[in-house]
Design a protein that fits this description.
293 residues; alpha/beta; Rossmann fold; 2 domains; six-stranded parallel sheet; three-stranded parallel sheet; globular; binds nicotinamide-adenine-dinucleotide; hydrolase
């Protein structure tokens, strides 16, 4: 059976390491890393994400700043707040919670964030640099960065290996594929128009699935011994659960865990890593801005 890649445990270790570094920075140069979060509108799920990010900051000693704007705000108003955080020396990371209201153009908003404070890594210049050989972005998007961290901390060799990423979204699939390529894997991307996705996936030593379709990847899609990172978070009906549903990944865990060499569970795999990487990006930013090693 496959080894379990315990994201909850790794995320806890990462958060503990960050807390130590935040304290050290404060003691040595008197600087506390700061993260600003801008939320537009009142989506319940976004409010929950923002609350969780604030709590995670507090737990490691990062200061958080929050701005809540009404749903009907204009792009200019949002950009005004971004600009003020861009020039605020106590803020080292800025993120705009997505999705934005429909009347706003995401690109205009994301473009306004200073690339040196873009801790979500969604600024087109940061994504562009991620795609370039011999260049590095200031920040890498948190979820794919969390996938790579899990691979590294489990000693998975990437160089020269075949990797398949299923899904090509801007926030997960595409940056995950670019990161694997930077780490010298040979990468294929499987997406909604791919023919015979199972044949292509079966060639992979490393699979990152970020699709949003419950149990899409079956046991016979997987090369024996492969490492599987399952990003998907999908609710499925479950009358036995108190909430009436439970969460499953994009990979059929029951089947895959019999074939794979190592696999992340859902929940408790990539999920907890995302916020840990946001904290890591914020600390890294404060260090870079203040020249603190
Ligand atoms: P998305 O909907 O933006 O992108 C899905 C991608 O999957 C698309 O590129 C599409 O081409 C591809 N796709 C769709 N159907 C397919 C099929 N049948 N076969 C192959 N490819 C197919 O989704 P996303 O934002 O990238 O998120 C993907 C999943 O990851 C979701 O379940 C989401 O909830 C989860 N997610 C988890 C985290 C986390 O763990 N913190 C973060 C982000 C997203």
């Amino acid at each position: 059976p496959a080894k379990l890649i315990d994201g909850k445990l790794v995320a806890k270790q990462v958060r503990e390491e960050i807390a130590v570094q935040v304290t050290r920075m404060k003691d040595v140069i008197g600087i506390v890393p700061g993260l600003a979060v801008i939320l537009v509108g009142s989506r319940k799920d976004s409010q929950t994400y923002v609350r969780n990010k604030k709590k995670a900051c507090e737990a490691v000693g990062i200061k958080s700043y929050e701005v809540n704007l009404p749903e009907d705000s204009s792009e200019e108003e949002v950009i005004k707040h971004i600009a003020s955080f861009n020039s605020d020396p106590s803020v080292h990371g800025i993120l705009v919670q997505l999705p934005l209201p429909r009347h706003m153009n995401d690109e205009n908003i994301l473009n306004a964030v200073s690339i040196e404070k873009d801790v979500d890594g969604f600024h087109p210049l940061n994504i562009g640099r991620l795609a370039m050989q011999g260049r590095d972005p200031f920040f890498v998007p948190c979820t794919p960065k969390g996938c790579m961290e899990l691979l590294h901390r489990h000693g998975v060799e990437i160089k020269g290996k075949r990797a398949v990423v299923i899904g090509r979204s801007n926030i997960v699939g595409t940056p995950a594929a670019l990161l694997l390529q930077k780490a010298n894997a040979t990468v294929s991307i499987v997406h909604s128009q791919t023919k015979n996705p199972e044949q292509i996936t079966r060639q992979a030593d490393i699979v990152i699935a970020a699709v949003g379709v419950a149990n899409l990847v079956r046991g016979d899609w997987i090369k024996p011994g492969a490492t599987i990172i399952d990003v998907g978070i999908n609710p499925v009906d479950d009358p036995e659960s108190p909430r009436g549903y439970r969460l499953v990944g994009d990979v059929c865990y029951e089947e895959a865990s019999k074939v794979a060499g190592a696999i992340t569970p859902v929940p408790g795999g990539v999920g907890p890593m995302t916020i840990a990487m946001l904290l890591s990006n914020t600390l890294e930013s404060a260090r870079r801005i203040h020249g603190f090693k």
